Amino acid sequence: MKSSSHAPLHNRNVENRPIPSEYFSGNNCKKHNDENRKQCEASSASHSNADLITNHLNETTAASKTANGTPQHQWTINDFEVGAPLGRGRFGHVYCVREKKSKYIVALKAIIKDQISTPRLAKQLISEISIQSRLKHPNILRLYGFFHDDQRIFLLLEYAPGGELYRRMQKEKILRESEAAGYVYQLCNALSYLHSKQIIHRDIKPENILIGIYGILKLADFGWSAERTETNKRTTLCGTLDYLAPEMLNGSGYDEKIDLWCL
């Protein structure tokens, strides 16, 4: 098992700390663990694009070791009890997992390497990991670390037990004014921090906003995020059609203000 170097989960800022084990959805834990391992064994890596990602992860791991002086803990799938699935994405599944040693709960995103079918998708995933791993803000979903084996890449993410804001909006139909104002305020805080780091999210929508413990909003899914350049505007057409800003559609170039349009 190849893996990254990251500090133990309990050594984290309070705002983004993994939640205690009482939130763990551990029913049929062995069943989901077995299914996850079977999927890992069944997948076959697409070598050219998988190697691009693997090389980047290995280089990141080596740099982390050098910067810290001493090797940190190397995560493997055996460090976790795998619980209920939380969702499914383009390239794999997300599970609720509990670290065996600390008993902390996190979300484990398992990405199948052979689903990364093009160099563009490989670079997009590398960018997502690189950007989200640098972001530390109470209203941004934390990426604690990553590890990988021959078939899959695993991302350790902050667990948001409240689920998607989209689901809450569907359930409530109309949010209370005070609740909606609180959500907008928190999202503004997240975007202010993000833009101060020269990062554009490019896919702000209720499905990519999660509700954490105590109702704290968490901006998530940095698959389309990109770094803002000082000289040139971005021109890539991306994101979700219903939320695209006019300047992205007209091809004139755009900057971080497109995130404000989505808000």
Describe the model.
The protein is α+β, with helices and mostly antiparallel strands and 263 residues long. The protein has 2 domains: 2-157, Phosphorylase Kinase, domain 1, CATH 3.30.200.20; 165-262, Orthogonal Bundle (Transferase(Phosphotransferase), domain 1). The protein is built from 7 helices and 10 strands. The protein has helices at residues 29-42, 47-68, 119-132, 165-172, 177-196, 246-249, 257-262, and strands at residues 2-3, 80-88, 92-99, 105-112, 143-148, 152-157, 199-200, 209-211, 217-219, 226-227. The strands form 3 sheets. A 6-stranded antiparallel β-sheet has the order 1-5-6-4-3-2. Strands 7-10 form a two-stranded antiparallel sheet. Mean pLDDT is 80; it is low at 28-33 and 36-47.
Number of helices: 7
In the CATH scheme, what's the topology name of the largest domain? Phosphorylase Kinase, domain 1
What share of the residues lie within helices?
25-40%
Quote the average pLDDT.
80
The largest β sheet comes out as: 6 strands, antiparallel
Named at the architecture level, the CATH assignment of the largest domain is 2-Layer Sandwich
What gyration radius follows from the Cα positions, in whole Å? 19 Å
- CA-to-CA gap between the ends? 41 Å
How many domains in all? 2
Outline the low-pLDDT stretches: 28-33, 36-47
Q: So what's the overall shape?
A: globular
Instruction: Look at the structure and name the CATH superfamily of the largest domain.
Output: Phosphorylase Kinase, domain 1
Q: What structural class do helix, strand and pairing data support? A: alpha+beta
User: What's the arrangement of strands in the largest beta sheet?
Assistant: 1-5-6-4-3-2
Order of helices and strands: EHHEEEHEEHHEEEEHH
**Mind telling me the CATH class of the largest domain?**
Alpha Beta
